[in-house]
Each structure stands twice: as structure tokens, then as C-alpha cells.
Amino acid sequence: MSPRKVDPNLGAQLIEAAARLLSEEGPAALSTRKLAATVGTSTMAVYTHFGGMDDLVRAVVREGFTLLNRRLESVEETDDPVADVVALGWAYRANAREHRHLYNVMFGGSSLSGFSLTDADRQHGRYTLDALVRAVKRCVAAERFLPSDPELVAHQLWIALHGLVTLDLGGYLVEPFTADTCFEAQVCAMVLGAGDDPARARESVARGALRPV
Amino acid sequence: MSPRKVDPNLGAQLIEAAARLLSEEGPAALSTRKLAATVGTSTMAVYTHFGGMDDLVRAVVREGFTLLNRRLESVEETDDPVADVVALGWAYRANAREHRHLYNVMFGGSSLSGFSLTDADRQHGRYTLDALVRAVKRCVAAERFLPSDPELVAHQLWIALHGLVTLDLGGYLVEPFTADTCFEAQVCAMVLGAGDDPARARESVARGALRPV
DNA sequence: CCTAATCAATGACGGCGTTATGTAACGGTG
DNA sequence: CACCGTTACATAACGCCGTCATTGATTAGG
Which residues bind DNA (chains A, B) (predicted)? Predict the structure, then answer.
């Protein structure tokens, strides 16, 4: 009654290979045949370990979200919470740049022939905001931000970050309005919009930018 | 020495059909064969009128940009320039919602099997910001915004709008932080970040939201 | 050792973008 | 008028894709 067990490595290998193909050759190169070739198996592996190409992509996306989450969680909390917010922004952006194709797939771009995320996937990605929400709460507690809904403020920051990242990856931010320039201005404006003092805001934005990514 | 003339209608029909397919059935349904079937021709028409599928998509994207531009240009200039900025934001968002698949293709998402925009395409899309830049200049002239680079401020607004739109289209903005809620908060924060007075900002945001889209 | 059960390899199917080849329409030329 | 070079489009093929039914291989329990 106990037949040959499924090789748990194969699923992980497929996800890894898919992420690598996605990163190095773009979404168009992601095919069951290429995957089977690089992993050294047949196309059927995709169907036994996942339901099909869509579900494999979904798994890769989940990997991408945990990657992003780990990156954000690695940002340290200092006694300048506004600088922490800025550092989180840099981390978010750095992660997107390092896994640009993956980021595109994660957030609905790169449709990958009809593939789209489910509500569960999106919900899974939502906890990404946790670190940001915590930082915003600390900004409010430190009376740097006016009292308001920290989740809403985090959403605003997220929206701004996401817009910047996608336009940057799309190649829309060129001299003299590069992504770096716009990032600084954007974060500054958002922090000011949240109620921080202009002078302290500038200082914190500069401090946050100096953090290691 | 004078060969058979190309039917100029066919190219337009192809673009129109492509836009319709894109809108109604998504990027996955956009194929030379479906196009040929709906227009009533063969797949070769795509290659004689455009260089291939990529160039047809490019043409559709250009159509999309002129559509967006027309939408933004139709926003009237009133004596409340901040409200005009807000109205431009609503118009931008309304256009994206009405042509969601097209918007995704325009801005790098929906890779459509390896397709990506050229620098020329992006440059063609850049004049989209003109209306926004003009409105920001008027805000500065009316001393609602602090003196600064209007283009940079317009970029910031654009980035925030784009982030909101793409996250909205991706289904990431759900209760209680819906796209409407975030939009208001986002625009408010950006306007405040640009230097406007809080009370007048709120008033203008409300006024701009009441404009017909 | 046999049997049941499960994974994976093979090959097929339809659909895709693209390309080679055929064909018919057109304007210039006699 | 006929003729011909040129070009637009049709047809069919090629290689690739995702998917799946079939079949062989492999393993654990009896």
C-alpha cells in the first residue's frame, strides 16, 4: 500500500529552475520543456508536482513573496523610525531590481500566457506590508507622523514604492528624473504628507539611504 | 513598376481588432490567427502591415497612449489648479480602468511572450505628462505649491498614480483599503508634500473628485 | 516473489508565431 | 490591348509551446 514516494527535491528543483529561467531569460523562456531539460526530467514532472504551468508559476511567486518578506524583515529597527521607513523603501526597491522578472510576475504584470494570481496568492503577499506597518506605527509613536491609520499610511508608501519600481523596471524613469531622484523626492513627499517636520524628514531620508541594502 | 496597393483599412482594422481582443479576452487571446479570423484575412496581414506580432502590439500601445493623452487633455483648467491636478488623477485612473489590459501592456506588464517596448515607444508615451506638468506649474504660480521643479512633482504624482492603478488592477487593494480610499489619501499626501495648505488641500481634493470623468 | 500503486518518459494533439512558397491584382510600358 | 515586374495576401509548412493519455519503471507491503 506504500508505493514509490514522490521525490520532494524535484518540486524544489523545478521552482528553483523556473526562478532562474525567469531571472536570466525572462518570462518568455519559461516553458515546461526548458524546465524539464534543465532539471533533467520530463515535462510531466510539472504536472505531477504542480497542477500545471500556472500552479508552478504560482509557487514561484510565493517564493518571491517570501524572498521579499525576508528582505524587508532584515531591515533593522533603529531609534529613527522615519529612517527605518526609508530603509524599508530601499530594501523593497533593491529586491525588485535583483528579481525584476519575478517582481513583474508577482504583481500582475507579465501575464505569462493567461496566468493570473488568485485571491489566496494576493493575500499571501499582503503580509509583506507588516514590516512597513510596524515602522509607521513607531513613527506615530515617536510623534514624527500625525496620528492616523498606520495601515493606510503603509499602503500609501507601498503604492508609491510599487509605482516607482514598476516604472523604473519598465524603463520610464530616465535622466534627469531617474529612479533614484524620484525615489528620494517621493519618499520625502510621503513622509511630509504623513506629518513629519521638513527638516527632520530630510535628515531621516538621508540617514535611511545610507543603510546597507 | 507600380504594384498592388496595400489596403490602408486593413492595418487599422487589425489594430482595432487587437485592441478589442485585448480588452475583452485579455492578452492571452491576442494571436495572429484570432486576429486573422476576426478581421477576415490571413495571418500574413500582420506581417505585411506590421513587422510581426511585436510591432502590431507596439502600434496598439501607441493607440493606447494617444487615448490616454486625449483623456487627460480633456480635463478642463479651472481657477483651482490643485483641483485640476486631482481631476487629472481621476481621469488617469478612469482611463486605466476602462482599458485595463491595454494599460498593462503599455507599462511593461503583460509581457506578451517576450514583447517589450522600445525607447521610442516610451518617449512617445512621455508627453502624457504634459497636462500634469502644466497643472503643477499653475499650482506653483498660484502659490499653492512651494516653488520646485514642476516636472519632478509631476513625476511624483505619476508614480503614485501608476502604483495605485497597477495595484488596483492586480486586485491588491481590497477592503478596507480600496483603490478609492487609497487614491484620496495618496493624492492628499502628495499635494501636502508639494507644500499646499492642509485645509485648502482637502477642499481641492474633494472638488477635483466631483469632476465628470 | 508478487502485486498494487505511483512517478515519470514517450508520444500525440491542437494552437501559437513565423516563414517559404504560390497566386492574383495592380500600374507602367509596348 | 497584351505584357510584365512588383507587391499584397493566401496557403501550407516548420518549430515551439502547454497539455494529457498511455506506457514503462520503480518501490513498498503482503
Answer: 31-50
A192's enclosing H/E stretch is helix A179-193
Nucleotides of C under 7 A from a protein CB: 4-11, 15-21, 24-29
CA distance B119 to A171: 8
Q: Closest nucleotide (CA of B30 to C1')?
A: C16
Answer yes or no: do A84 and A182 share one domain: yes
Asked if the Cβ–Cβ distance from B190 to A188 is below 8 Å, we say no
Q: Is B34 in the same domain as B70?
A: no
Residues A164, B159: C-beta atoms closer than 8 Å: yes
Are the CB atoms for A92 and A187 separated by under 8 Å? Answer: no
CA-to-CA distance for B36 and B22, rounded, in angstroms? Answer: 14
From B106, which residue of chain A is nearest by alpha-carbon distance? A170
Residue identified by cell 508608501 is: A157
pLDDT digits (tens, 9 = 90+) for B76-115: 999 999 999 999 999 999 999 999 999 998 987 666 756 7
A83 lies in the same domain as A129: yes
> What are the pLDDT digits (tens) for A102-157?
999 898 766 675 677 888 888 777 788 999 999 999 999 999 999 999 999 999 99
- Domains contained in chain B, number: 2
